[in-house]
Amino acid sequence: MESKTILNDIIDLNEKLNLYKYGIPDNGNLIENPTDEDFYLKYKLLAPEEFEKYKMGVCWDYVTYIAYYFKKNFPFIFFKTFFHMIDDNENCPSHTFFLFYLNNYTYWFESSWKQERGVFEFDHESDAIDHIIDKLKIDYEDFPSYLVEYNALDKSLVHKSCTEFMDYMINISKSITNNNNN
């Protein structure tokens, strides 16, 4: 398959997902614009099939679905998934994001963060990550942040609560930090 055709197919997927809503399915009820309380009490990471069914989720669900879709439809394209959290000692805002690699470029595929949705090309992975983190930290420059590469296709993550998912990512971050300090 020609690279231009592949990229067009990926852009089509992005446009489809851009129509999905940001929110939390809770026992069949769709909660758009969830409050922090909704997120902490009602959220469970969706399986890709659930995400397709509800056409709604948060960034964690979008990235899981995108990774699933790429593995199924573009198995020859290398990708990575990342979790970024800002430790503001209160809400700990986070974002997951998806990067893929094609023709010696890095692409950021974004659908859940509505102001930033699209497929963006970068010369290097580090350029993409720096760009994304700069946008995420706009209101949080004075707080530490953590970036973790993780496997969005890890089936053990499905149906984890917000707290369970965050704890999982924090533990990965601590593990990486501890291993780098040895």
List keywords for this structure.
disordered C terminus; alpha+beta; 6 helices; 26% strand; 182 residues; three-stranded mixed beta sheet; five-stranded antiparallel beta sheet; globular
Structure notes:
With 182 residues, the chain is of the alpha+beta class. Helices cover 41% and strands 26% of the residues. It contains 6 helices and 8 strands, in the order αββααβαββββαβα. The strands form 2 sheets. Strands 7-6-5-4-8 form a 5-stranded antiparallel beta sheet, sandwiched between helices. β4 (78-86) and β5 form a beta hairpin. The longest helix is centred in the last third of the chain and has 19 residues, at 162-180. The radius of gyration is 16 Å and the shape is globular. The chain starts with a helix and ends with a helix. The model is unreliable at 177-182 (pLDDT under 50).
Brief account:
41% of the residues lie in helices and 26% in strands. The chain is α+β, with helices and mostly antiparallel strands and 182 residues long.
SSE topology string:
HEEHHEHEEEEHEH
Measured on Cα atoms, how large is the radius of gyration?
16 Å
Q: Describe the oligomeric state of these chains in a short phrase.
A: single chain
Unreliable spans: 177-182
Overall mean pLDDT score?
A: 88
What's the shape? globular
**How is the largest sheet built, in terms of strand order?**
7-6-5-4-8
Structural class by helix and strand composition: alpha+beta
Compute the separation of the termini in Å.
Answer: 45 Å
Main beta-sheet annotation = 5 strands, antiparallel
Number of contiguous helices? 6
Q: What share of the residues lie within helices?
A: 40-55%
Report the strand count: 8
Quote the beta fraction.
25-35%
